[in-house]
Design brief:
- By secondary structure, the protein is of the alpha/beta class.
- It folds into 2 domains: 4-187 and 227-250, Rossmann fold (3-Layer(aba) Sandwich), CATH 3.40.50.720; 196-223 and 255-291 and 309-329, UDP-galactose 4-epimerase, domain 1, CATH 3.90.25.10.
- It contains 10 helices and 13 strands.
- It has helices spanning 13-24, 69-79, 93-98, 100-121, 155-174, 196-208, 229-239, 258-268, 297-302, 311-329, and strands at 4-8, 28-33, 60-63, 83-86, 126-132, 178-183, 186-187, 215-217, 223-224, 227-228, 247-250, 256-257, 277-279.
- The strands form 4 sheets. Strands 3-2-1-4-5-6-11 form a 7-stranded parallel beta sheet, with helices on both faces. A two-stranded parallel sheet has the order 7-10.
- α5 links the parallel β5 (126-132) and β6 (178-183).
- α6 runs parallel beside α8.
- The radius of gyration is 20 Å and the shape is globular.
- The relative contact order is 0.13.
Length: 330
C-alpha cells in the first residue's frame, strides 16, 4: 500500500517539486489549498490530470487554510497522512513588513494550529516543518549550522523562529516526529517573480529580447547561499525517512552577492550587467540581512544529501525557462 503525504503550501515553488518527487516514489499525494477568487495552480497543473490507477495514485487537492483550525482538522481526519510536509506560509520577506500580522498568523500560528490539530486527532504522521535561513539574521558566524543563534530581522523571520521552536516543543512535549529543515535560499524556474533571483533572470531575458532597457533592484551587495529547489525538496523527504526526528541545515556552503548573480546571468547572454542593472534604495529592506551562508555538514553525513547543481547551472536553467516563457507570452 502506498504512503499518503499531505503538503501545505502545495502551490508554491517547493510544493510543486515535492509533488513531482513524491509521485515518482508512488505516494498518494494530497495538497492543502486556500480558496481564492483566482486559481494559483500553474506550478502543479500538470499533476492534476494523472490517472488514479494502482501504479500512480491521483494527486488530490483539499480546500483549507492554516488560519482555520476547523478545516485543518477536517482534512487531517479524512486523509490520515503518513507524512506531512508543512511548507505553507506568507513567505516573502519584503511583504512581511507590509502585512506583519497576517504573516505571523499564517506562518507562525498556522504551524501551531496544524500541530495542535494533529495532536488532538491522535494521529501519528512524520512531520517536516519548513524553516528558513532568514531566522539567523545578521549573525556574525561565517557559516551557520543547527547550533547557531537566531536573530530574525523581519516579521517573516520572526514568525519562522516561532514555528521552529513550537515544533521543537511539540516534539519534546508530546513525542511527535517533527523535523525542522532550515533551508537556505533555493531557487528555480518556479520561483515567484517577486524574489530577487527570478527578478534577475526574468529581467535579463526581457532585456535580451528587446522588451526592456533597465532592471531596477535593491541591495546588490547582499550575499546569499543559493541552491536549486529541486535538490532541496529531496532533503525534506530524506528527513522523514530517518528513524528519529532532528533539525537540519540545508545549503550549498557557498555564498554569492546579488551583484554576482547579475554578472552570471547577464554573462550567459554575453551582456554586461553594469549597463542594465540599477540599484535603488527604495527597494532596500527596513532591516537588511547582509550575508547568509550555511553549513550543511550534518545533513550530508546523516542524510547522505548534497547539492547537485552549481549556481551557474541554476542560472542557465532559470534563464532558459524565462526566455521560453516570454516568447510564449509574445
Amino acid at each position: 500500500m502506498s504512503k499518503k503525504a499531505l503538503i501545505t503550501g502545495v502551490t508554491g515553488q517547493d510544493g510543486s517539486y515535492l509533488v513531482e518527487l513524491l509521485l515518482k516514489k508512488k505516494y498518494e499525494v494530497h495538497g492543502l489549498v486556500r480558496r481564492t477568487s483566482t486559481f494559483n495552480r500553474g506550478r502543479i497543473e500538470k499533476f492534476l490530470n494523472l490517472k488514479n490507477d494502482k501504479q500512480n495514485k491521483k494527486f488530490i487537492l483539499h480546500y483549507g487554510d492554516l488560519v482555520d483550525s476547523g478545516s485543518l482538522t477536517k482534512i487531517l481526519s479524512k486523509v490520515k497522512p503518513n507524512e506531512i510536509y508543512h511548507l505553507g506560509a506568507q513567505s516573502h520577506v519584503g511583504t512581511s513588513f507590509e502585512i506583519p500580522e497576517y504573516t505571523l498568523e499564517a506562518t507562525g500560528y498556522g504551524t501551531l494550529k496544524l500541530l495542535e490539530a494533529i495532536r488532538n486527532l491522535k494521529i501519528y504522521p512524520k512531520i517536516y516543518q519548513a524553516g528558513s535561513s532568514e531566522m539567523y539574521g545578521n549573525f556574525s558566524a561565517n557559516k551557520l549550522n543547527e547550533n547557531s543563534s537566531f536573530h530574525p530581522r523581519s516579521p517573516y523571520a520572526a514568525a519562522k523562529v516561532y514555528a521552529h521552536w513550537i515544533a521543537v516543543n511539540y516534539r519534546e512535549a508530546y513525542n511527535m516526529f517533527i523535523s525542522n529543515g532550515i533551508l537556505f535560499n533555493h531557487e528555480s524556474p518556479n520561483r515567484g517573480e517577486n524574489f530577487v533571483t527570478r527578478k534577475i533572470t526574468l529581467g535579463a531575458a526581457m532585456i535580451y529580447l528587446g522588451l526592456r532597457k533597465k532592471l531596477v533592484l535593491g541591495n546588490l551587495e547582499a550575499k546569499r547561499d543559493w541552491g536549486y529547489a529541486k535538490d532541496y525538496v529531496e532533503a525534506m523527504w530524506l528527513m522523514l525517512q530517518q528513524k528519529k526526528p532532528d533539525d537540519f541545515v540545508i545549503s550549498t556552503g557557498k555564498s554569492h552577492s546579488v551583484r554576482d548573480f547579475c554578472k552570471i546571468v547577464f554573462g550567459l547572454l554575453n551582456l554586461d550587467y553594469k549597463k542594465f542593472v540599477i540599484s535603488d534604495k527604495k527597494y532596500f529592506r527596513p532591516t537588511e540581512v547582509d550575508s547568509l551562508e550555511g553549513d550543511s555538514a550534518k545533513a550530508r553525513k546523516l542524510l547522505g544529501w548534497q547539492p547537485k547543481t552549481s549556481l551557474k547551472s541554476l542560472a542557465k536553467i532559470m534563464l532558459k525557462s524565462d526566455i521560453e516563457y516570454i516568447k510564449k507570452l509574445k
